[in-house]
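Title: Comparing notes on inverse folding

I've been comparing how different people in this forum approach sequence design from structure. To keep things fair, I'm posting one structure and asking everyone to reply with a full sequence. Here's the target:
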C-alpha cells in the first residue's frame, strides 16, 4: 500500500505566514477567526502532496476545529471534500490535565476520552501524548526519572490507553526533547513497563537525535509498537542544559532542521519505518514554517527519495504516493 504524507498543524503556526509579529498574535487572531485560520491551512495543503493532518495545540487543536466547523462530522466532511483526513491529535501540556499530580487520573482519562471520541468521529485512530517535562538540570531538590516515576507514568498510560481503545483509538507516546521520554534509556524503560496492547510509540527522529540518541536504533528496537512517527531532522545533539520552562520549545528551534539538512540517517529511518504498523503514513513535522508549501514540498521530496531507495534495495516495486 502506498504511504500517505501528513503534517502537524504546528507547521502553520509561524507568525510570518499570517503577517503577524508573534506567536501570541497568531493565537489571538485565530481564536477570533477559527474559520479563516482553518480555511487558509486547508487551502495551503492543497498546494502540496500532503493529505493527512495531526491536530496540535491552539490554534491548530480540536477545540479550534470545532469552533470553525461546528462538529467533528462537519470537519470530517470539509476535509474529505478536499481529499484530506485527520491522522491523529496531539495532547499538549498547555491544555490537558497534568500527569505529575496523582489525583488527576479521572480528569486525565476523561480528557483523553473526549479527544478519542472526536478522533473516532473524524475517522482517525491515533492519540499522541507525551510524558511530563524534566526539570532544569541542577534544580534543588533534584527530580529523578527513575523506576518509581516510570511505574507511575505506566499506570496512568494503561488507564488512558484502555479508555481510548474503547473508541478504536491507539494511545502513542511522543519522544519530546527535555521530557521524561527523551533519552533512549527513557524510551526503553517506559516501553518495557507498559502493555503493548494499550500503549504505542510515536518516535520523533529529531528529538531523539537532540538527546544524543540514535533514532534508527530506537525504531528498530520498538518496531512492533510504532503506530505513527514524526519525520524531522536535527542539526546536532543539544550539548547544553536548557532551562526547562515555557520558553524551552522556542530555544530548541535552532537545533532543528528541515529533512535532509541534518544528522538523521533517513535511509535507515525509512527502512525501519517500512516495517512498523504505522508504515502507511509519513508525517513530516516542520515546526512553524514561514513558507509551509516550500517546506512541505522539500520534505516530501526527501521522504520520497529515501522510500524509493528502500524499495529498490528490497527488490519491491517503488510505491506511488497517494495524491
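Reply #1:
Here's my take.
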Amino acid at each position: 500500500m502506498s504511504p500517505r504524507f501528513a503534517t502537524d498543524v504546528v507547521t502553520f503556526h509561524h507568525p510570518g505566514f499570517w503577517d503577524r509579529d508573534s506567536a501570541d498574535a497568531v493565537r489571538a487572531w485565530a481564536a477570533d477567526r477559527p474559520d479563516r485560520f482553518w480555511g487558509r491551512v486547508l487551502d495551503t495543503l492543497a498546494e502540496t502532496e500532503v493529505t493527512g493532518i495531526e491536530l496540535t495545540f491552539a490554534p491548530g487543536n480540536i477545540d479550534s476545529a470545532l469552533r470553525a466547523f461546528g462538529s467533528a462530522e462537519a470537519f470530517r466532511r470539509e476535509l474529505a471534500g478536499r481529499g484530506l483526513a485527520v491522522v491523529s491529535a496531539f495532547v499538549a501540556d498547555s491544555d490537558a490535565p497534568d500527569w505529575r499530580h496523582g489525583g488527576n487520573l479521572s480528569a486525565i482519562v476523561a480528557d483523553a476520552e473526549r479527544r478519542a471520541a472526536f478522533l473516532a468521529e473524524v475517522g482517525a485512530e491515533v492519540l499522541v501524548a507525551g510524558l511530563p517535562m524534566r526539570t532544569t538540570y541542577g534544580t534543588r531538590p533534584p527530580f529523578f526519572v527513575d523506576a518509581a516515576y516510570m511505574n507511575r507514568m505506566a499506570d496512568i498510560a494503561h488507564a488512558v490507553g484502555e479508555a481510548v481503545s474503547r473508541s478504536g483509538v491507539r494511545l502513542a507516546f511522543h519522544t519530546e526533547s527535555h521530557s521524561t521520554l527523551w533519552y533512549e534509556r527513557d524510551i526503553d524503560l517506559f516501553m518495557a513497563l507498559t502493555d503493548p496492547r494499550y500503549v504505542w510509540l510515536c518516535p520523533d527522529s529529531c528529538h531523539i537525535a537532540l538527546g544524543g540518541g540514535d533514532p534508527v536504533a530506537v525504531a528498530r528496537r520498538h518496531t512492533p509498537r510504532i503506530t505513527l512517527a514524526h519525520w524531522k531532522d536535527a542539526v546536532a545533539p543539544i550539548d547544553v542544559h536548557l532551562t526547562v520552562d515555557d520558553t524551552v520549545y522556542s530555544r530548541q528551534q535552532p537545533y532543528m532542521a528541515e529533512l535532509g539538512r541534518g544528522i538523521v540517517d533517513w535511509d535507515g529511518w525509512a527502512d525501519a519505518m517500512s516495517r512498523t504498523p504505522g508504515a502507511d503514513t509519513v508525517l513530516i513535522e516542520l515546526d512553524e514554517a514561514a513558507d509551509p508549501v516550500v517546506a512541505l514540498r522539500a520534505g516530501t521530496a526527501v521522504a520520497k527519495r529515501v522510500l524509493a531507495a528502500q524499495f529498490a534495495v528490497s527488490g519491491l516495486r517503488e510505491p506511488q504516493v497517494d495524491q
